[in-house]
TrEMBL record:
It catalyses: 2 (2E,6E,10E)-geranylgeranyl diphosphate = 15-cis-phytoene + 2 diphosphate. It is an enzyme of class 2 (transferase). GO terms for biological process: carotenoid biosynthetic process. This is 15-cis-phytoene synthase. PANTHER family: BIFUNCTIONAL LYCOPENE CYCLASE/PHYTOENE SYNTHASE. The keyword Transferase applies. PROSITE patterns: SQUALEN_PHYTOEN_SYN_2. It holds the Pfam family SQS_PSY. Gene3D superfamilies: Farnesyl Diphosphate Synthase.
Length: 313
């Protein structure tokens, strides 16, 4: 009976993680629909863990003071370490129950990417967040996004004869590409809602874009000028280069993981085309794909997966 009750707790936990994924991340959820059950469930548990840590910093219930957010992140790190050691402590909620089960089912998982993600969120708490160079922004992207690839690789598995180490570089590149795409899509929203500009200052300077103008245009709306267009073209090309590196990793993944990862990759990559179509106005327009557009992309992605036509140069 106790075993049955425990199993119910775990399956309810996964169900809650699934609901969270389908509610907050339509693209990732769509991608998990093509996975075998055990992989999909583990991915939802990882998604829910990542989403909850992100919410500490920028969710609707985020604590107002930076020092309080830091304290929350420190507690989150302790909580992670305790779950990793298999400790069953008070306050373990349904998402944690699924997460703890996932760690047990995939013993190849490593705690380091999880800790790095918390460190990445720490970089985002201060009101004065800014990135002087691409090197600094790269570190942030690595910590909050490439880590997701490293968390999910043990769940996805690799093709025969390919080690996780072989696939690591492409997994990291995919995280960088996705996070940079996120940043380019959300320039207006980040500036309006949080006074944040993630674009590297050295790039803005080089293209003659004043950070104050980015904030003003995001708040009041305003023309996109050639200087800003050129900056966006440069950053979009940078993101595309990381997508090309990431592509090499698709055939390195286990067969069951190739389609879901390729779907997530291709749908996000398309957002860059949408920014171009919006004439680089990411101050007042959010680049996105409709559900119908996403569905239309699927057969093409599926074809690329079965024919293995990826850039492997
Ligand atoms: C070899 C090879 C190609 C391997 C593939 C490895 C792989 C599966 C990589 C996937 C990488 C991935 C999905 C990265 C997510 C990047 C991301 C969106 C990060 C977001 C950070 C903060 O940004 P921001 O605050 O600006 O964003 P919001 O506006 O708040 O959304 C994150 C929010 C960090 C937390 C990340 C998540 C919540 C997403 C986690 C996603 C999964 C676990 C699903 C992965 C599943 C598939 C099918 C790819
Ligand atoms: Mn966020």
């Amino acid at each position: 009976m106790r075993v049955k009750a425990q199993a119910k707790l775990v399956s309810d936990g996964y169900e809650a993680c699934k609901d969270m994924t389908s509610e907050y991340a339509k693209t990732f959820y769509l991608a998990t629909q093509t996975m075998p059950d055990e992989q999909a469930m583990a991915t939802w548990a990882i998604y829910a863990w990542c989403r909850r840590v992100d919410e500490i910093v920028d969710g609707p219930n985020a604590l107002a003071e930076a020092s309080m957010q830091e304290e929350s992140l420190r507690e989150w790190m302790d909580r992670l370490e305790r779950m990793w050691e298999g400790k069953n402590f008070n306050g373990l909620n349904q998402y944690d129950v699924a997460f703890a089960d996932m760690i047990r089912r995939f013993p190849g998982s490593d705690i380091e990417p999880y800790k790095d993600m918390v460190r990445g969120m720490m970089m985002d708490v201060s009101d004065e967040v800014k990135y002087d160079s691409w090197e600094q922004l790269y570190l942030y992207c690595y910590r909050v996004a490439s880590t997701v690839g490293l968390m999910t690789l043990p769940v996805m598995g690799t093709a025969e004869g390919v080690t996780q180490e072989d696939a690591r570089e492409s997994a990291i590149a995919l995280g960088i590409a996705l996070q940079l795409t996120n940043i380019l899509r959300d320039v207006g929203e980040d500036a309006r809602d949080r006074g944040r500009i993630y674009l590297p200052e050295e790039d803005m300077k080089r293209f003659g874009v004043d950070p104050q103008t980015v904030l003003d245009r995001s708040l009041k709306g305003g023309e996109v000028d050639d200087a800003y267009r050129n900056l966006m073209k440069f950053e979009i090309e940078r993101a595309r280069e990381y997508y090309r590196q990431a592509e090499k990793g698709i055939p390195m993944l286990a067969k069951s993981a190739q389609l879901p990862v390729a779907v997530a990759m291709e749908l996000y990559r398309e957002i860059l085309d949408k920014i171009e179509l919006n004439d680089y106005d990411n101050f007042s327009r959010r680049a996105y794909l409709t559900g119908f557009e996403k569905l239309c992309k699927l057969p093409g992605v599926w074809l690329r997966v079965i024919t293995g036509s990826w850039n492997v140069a």
